[in-house]
Amino acid sequence: MTDAIWTGLINLVGNPHTMGLMLIAVMIGIIVGATPGIGGRLSIALAIPFVFGMDMTQGAVFLLTMHAVNGTSGQISSIMFGVPGDGDDAATTIDGYPMAKKGEAGRALGASITASGVGGIIGAGVFAVMIPLLEPVVLAFSPAEFFLLAILGITFIAFLAGKGQIFKGIIVGLFGMMLATVGMDPQTGTARYAGDYLFLWDGVSIVTCVLAVFAVPEMIALASRGGSISSLSPELARFSYRQLFQGVMDVPRHWFLVIRTSIIGAVIGMIPGLGGSAAAWMCYGHAVQSSKTPERFGKGAVEGVIAPETASNAKEGGSLLPTLFFGIPGSSGMAVMMGAFLILGIQPGPAMMTQNLDLVWTLIWALVVGNIIAVSFLLFVTRWVALLTFINGAVIVPFILVLVSVGAYANEGQWENLVILMIISFIGWGLMRYDWPRAPFVIGLVLGKIAEESLHKALGLWGTSFFTRPLSLVLIALIVATIGFALYNNLRGKNAMPVGAGS
Amino acid sequence: MNLLSKSALSFVALAASTGAAQAQDGAAFYNGKTVNYIVATAPGGGYDTYGRLVAEYMQKYLPGSTFVVRNMPGAGHLIGTNAIYAAKPDGLTLGTFNTGLVYNQIVGNEGIKFDLNKFSWVGKAAADPRVFMVAAQSPIKSWADLVASKEPLNFSTAGVGSASYVETVILTRTLKLPIRMQTGYNGSDDQLAMRRGEITGTIASRSSIDQFVKNGYGRMIAQIGGIEKDVPQLKTLVKAGSGQELLDLIESQSEIARLTAAAPGVPAPQLAALRDAYRKSMEDKDLQARAEKLGLPVEPAYGEEIAKMIATALKQTPETAALLKEAMEKPKK
Lengths: 503, 333
Hints:
The complex is a heterodimer. Helix content of chain A is about 75%, strand content about 0%.
């Protein structure tokens, strides 16, 4: 085993050609990740023709690195402009953008980029440690557990809404869950709330909703307020490499949180069917819930940036596990990756462990090295990128709105999503204008769908007896504890001044 | 040789030469043109992979053309298929979609804005036989075990109304199998569910579960269509009886997979050029080598042949259509 670890590393860094390809892959991954609406899945699909000539190791390293660093650059636009690239970046927006508004874009970027990198590396570590435990852990989660995990995630809304806002939070969360019911009913095959519009059969596009609820209202506010995104001038904000460095150092300062959210992210990534957005949101919820000062969240708490970013990169290591060792892809991105592995002559499946262990370790190292390269590069360039937050809004708003529209369209390639974007933007703007929390909306939308689908499956398989499965009981206990804790917190704080937790 | 056969022969020769001439005229049309190739699903997956492969090689055999692959996912291939059908019939828009839409058309489901009989068929790349597969740890070892099972067995399908759902309903009802359907297993959800043991088996296209079986997680107990000899054909296992037409329908369906089609009414020269380029692509050694690497079988058929196959599949007696409709009725709880 130890032999394989070092052979794996030497295969990677000892070969200049492989390292060169990896550098290219990191650059492509960063660019694709920074563009809203274009997922990593598409970039792998497009890269497949290029891997035909490559040998097994190089091709696999190339594709994996490209995929793994995707999440690292996604947060740049979420933090600086409040434009999340996809569902998981939206969690970063909630505290990242307020930080940019306070003139701390550099710190937020430093923290989030470092957190991504560290998360990716810890995720690779979890990958390595979990190999022997893969089978029992992954197979323990069935639709019954998916349903309860989704419900657990939804109960985090109680914390995200902030004190005194719990009912507003629940209303917004229910609205999100309501939108999640648009589309084909999984049980009867009837189109719900779709009218004559076929594009609604698959439900409302999450990326479009996220852009509408976060990005557009912020741009409207910026345009009407005037000035730049940062309320402070660069001089007053003391914008410099130092601020960036301060952000980098925020990560070790919250080391315990970083480790917890990385592990949660990696484990959620391992379990096929929950999806990446769930990892980021659950870790964000966990950060708020476990904080001694939860009222700071939503207004620019650096932990709110660190938690989702560690999770979203850590999950990449996790999601590779079932793909490699079962030959069963954990996500749609991994399904494309598996197709590419077959081209390269890699046969994913249990035989990987015995026949291709060197390659497995090379891939784990590729996750580590790829993240390090991406982080160093991004930390170097963000010094200049972050300056955009000090530019006059009048110049920047039109560009961002174009970026938002392209993102909403490109994700599914359907123009109808632009109409949805406009409609939901009104709602998003209303929520912001009247100081209602917006995060519960996305949680309701993302987890509502998972909850519904897995509830149907669980009931079909076991009837109501699924609630008494051992793991189900543990999750139910967690849900009850979360709700109890939230109620206690809210009732205790009832007489205190309600704190307007922005979003 | 008498006069009649001579003239018949020369007629055939003439027809062939005009066909080739048309294809040549058509090919000239494509010089400098951009062709949209619509894939009715998201990137990744079988349709996308076949689609991109076909587009790449058709571009090679239509000199001067540029093929652009566009993914138009949604509503179980309906959005993309409607778009291909509604495109301007100039031969510059073609695409690929699920053959399972044949079922939807026979029954007349909502959302269909096309007539499969009228498409300008270019070709098909593969056959996709269906198999009954059960999880390795299940006590079901053979078809006889399945039929004899006292307990209903959990079989997974994709969403209600999908081709996998329709085929499972048809087979379960006409053969009176002890199967309880669990819907909503998309992508490879079913494979993980079989590993966990909550699902006993599934009726799937052979190519989609090939890897799973090779990894030792499942076994195939019966097959519908295809040329493989390692699994007994369902036909040899069941007595012919009522509902035979439906089994035939599934079999004919499995013969036509990974289609390429264009809107109705594409001018003859362009269509001839497209078919010609498609044929050359399928016969290309490079394409075959790459497809093999991808684990994609290539069993092509072309043009008119496809149109005939589709027409046969669609031409069902009212009784069969009624049976199918009944099978596709929404489950009542």
